[in-house]
Amino acid sequence: MPDTPPSVPDFTQWPSFPFEGDLRVKQLDEPVPFEPPRRGEADRECTACNAPDEAYIWVGERWRVRAMDRPTGLPMVLILESRSHLDLGDLPNLLAAELGVMTVRLERAVRSLDGVARVHVNRWGDGSAHLHLWFLARPYGRLQLRGTFLSLWDSILPPISEDQWRENLAMVAAWLAEFGGRPLAEPPRIQWQAPSSLSPTSPANAVEEPEEESASVIEAADEIPESDAAADLSDPSAYPSEPDPVPQAGPAPDNAPGNAPDSSPSGAQNSAPESEEADEVEPRKAQDDQQGATRTPQS
C-alpha cells in the first residue's frame, strides 16, 4: 500500500489487526545485561502459590483452573496452573504427561460452550515463574478475530454479561469435575424482584441507567439504582414538617364548641343500649293505654 510506511509490518493490513490509521513503530530499547526476576523468582512472592483454592473455578490434586476477576470481551478466558511451583521446562514426566491431558480436557470444556468456535492456547511466562497456560475462546462467526491478535481483541470488545459469564464458568467447572477434582464456580442466582407498582411506567418517567464500562464491570454490578423511596429516606428535607403538639390544660367539656361527636366504636356501643331501652318503653305505654280503654265502659 502506498500510504503505509515501509517500516510498518504487513500484518497491520490484515483484517484481524485491531487498529487502523497512521501507525509507527516504537523505538526499540537497548538490551539489558540482566533481566529482572519474575514473580516467584529470587525474593519475589509467587501469586499462584499464595492464592487459596477459593480463588479458582476448579481444583484438583495437582492442577487448578482460574478465571479473570470480571467478565471479559471473549466468551471465556481461563488459566491452567500447576499446584507445584514449577515452570514448563521443570515439569517431571508425570506432570508433563498430565499437562497434555489437562490441556485437551480444558480445551474441550471451553469449546463446548454456546457461541465458541475455537480455543486458543497460549503460554508466555514472562511475568511469572509459576507455570500457567492461557485458554482464550474465540466467538463463533467472528472471522475478524481469527489468528494472532485474539488476546488484543479481548481488551477491546465490550464484556459479556456477568450472568452469562458465571454460567459459562460453572459449566466448565462441572465438565472438569466429571473427571475428578472439585468444582468451585456456581451458576448465577435468579433475582426474583416484585414490581414496586402494578401501573406501567411511562417512558417520560423512566429512569435511564448509566452504561457500564468494560474497565469497571465488577464495580458497576454493585451500583443498584435506588428507588424513589430509598432516596427519600436519605433526604430529610423530602419529608413535610410535623406540627408541634398543642399542650392540653385539662379535659374539654362535652358541649364545648368545636368538639365533634364521638364516632369511635366505643361510642357506638354506648348508644346501642339506649336505643334498645327506648324501643321497650313504647310497647309498654301502648299496652297501658289499651287496658285503660277497656276498663272505662265497666265504670
Q: In short, what is this structure?
A:
The protein has 299 residues and is α+β, with helices and mostly antiparallel strands. 29% of the residues lie in helices and 10% in strands.
Number of helices: 7
Taken as a percent bin, the fraction of beta residues is: 5-15%
Task: Please describe the biggest sheet, giving its number of strands, its sense, and whether it closes into a barrel.
Answer: 6 strands, antiparallel
Distance between the termini: 145 Å
Structural shape: globular
What is the number of beta strands?
6
* Mean pLDDT rating: 75
Radius of gyration (CA) equals 40 Å
Helix content: 25-40%
Low-confidence stretches are 209-283, 292-299
Encode the helix/strand succession as letters: HEEEHEEHHEHHH
Broad structural category: alpha+beta
- Strand arrangement within the widest β-sheet reads 4-5-3-2-1-6
